[in-house]
User: Fold this.
Amino acid sequence: MFLLLLGILLLFLLFFELLIRQFSVSGFVLRKILHFSLGFILFFLPVCFSGNFYPVLLGVIFVFINGLSKYFGLLHILHDRNEKEVKDGLVSGYGPVLLPVAFVFLALCLWDSHIWVLRTSVLIAGIADSLASLVGASLGKVHIENLTKARKTVEGSLTMFGVSFSLIVACLFVFRDVFGDGLVSAPWFQLLALALLLALIATAVEALSSYGVDNFLIPVAVSYVLYIIDMDGTWLLSHFLIGGFLALLLALFSIKVKFLNNSGATATFLLGTTIFGVGGLVWTVPLLTFYLLSSVLSKLGGKRKAKFDLVFEKGSQRDAAQVYANGGIAWIIMIVYSLTNEPAYYFAYLGTLAAVQSDTWATEIGTMWPNPKARLITTLKSVPVGTSGGVSFPGTFGAFVGALLICASAIVMNVEWLTDFGIVNSFLLIGFSGLLASFVDSFFGATVQAQYFDPVREKVTERTHSFRNDGSEVKNKLIKGYHLVNNDVVNTLCALSGCALAFFFSQNM
Assistant:
């Protein structure tokens, strides 16, 4: 059976390759047909094999075949060579490699205990994603702005949502006899609500993804949600549904008040659904404390901070990259905690939130304070306020207060882990973890973060390009740091350092 299936898949590849090379058939369309077919094939693999050895071997073989094709440009069916398709954003990117990678990973993790979760996730990744791409490319008229580098349309996203919802509903009711404790007693209306939320999650992941990364992220995201709910009991299903609803409201509210753009709101929905739904109030309140206080603070002192708008890389309306930079480490910690239930990760969670709050407050307060004096953290030389790596007394004080507020928001929730650790110890741990992490941010900002010279205004800036008065674009010259190290990278390092400091000292105090 293994050799037969391998032979059939290879014949499909060669036949489609022939259609592209000899008959100039659209590689994009054929690739989506292949993608669609793979969804069905992967779904029915457990019917053909009792164990995961041969399915995993099959996946590994195609990881190598697709990877070699990507590197050497061997198969046009897997990787675009048509200039028009590249221009129109129909590139395959790493999708053909990442889909078998996702299957191998999930087959190793879920085959023996939750094979129905694996089957559901690969069906959505194969069928819903391919149909969404086809509809978006052929019928999509309404482009979604400020979402991702790849062209996303309302029509494509609606297709992704509708097909995902239908497939998830079908799978939840077909596989109901093999549910675990978390879903076996769930009423039909909760299963429908779960299907609705999962369809939103899959659609959001697809909307934020470029270069084929959704081929990995969609099945992994769907599998994660179904797995933890099925393992942790009916109570988590209710919490997750409520958390997803609140996260959606927060995302819509953030767009309305211009805290976030479309990509930032979509990323916040995904992050909030995980933390609100899995962590409950004790994890949610510190995150909301950071998000709301920092968002409001970024809107204050607009006139005074206006002169820095062309210095900083981005404005106060955050995008997905900034959400990942500020909340990505907290998101990962929440996922790890949900799989391990290790209390120590809560301290790491507070540490990373304290770090990003400290960094945000240091910048916002430092730039709105009347006539502050800033010094470069590496040399202590006087520098203009707003310079990457510059620190000031008002900014440092604000950083420490911001970190303490994160700890206070957790203590108000009467978290047992903090009480056992000691209230004073908790304030010291989280406060100084956040403050030191903000200094780490300043250090990297002064040393490796990219800084450019703006020839139009003759100023140093974090922006790669500037615009003349006539609207023409000018490329700024790199004068310090590295192109790849922008403010989002530095913020991520700050968040990671706060996490590490809080986790380490919570275990050694």
About this structure: The longest strand covers residues 451-454. The beta strands are 374-376, 382-383, 390-392, 451-454, 459-461, 465-467, 473-475, 477-480. The CA atoms of residues 36 and 127 lie 5 Å apart. The two ends are 58 Å apart (CA to CA).
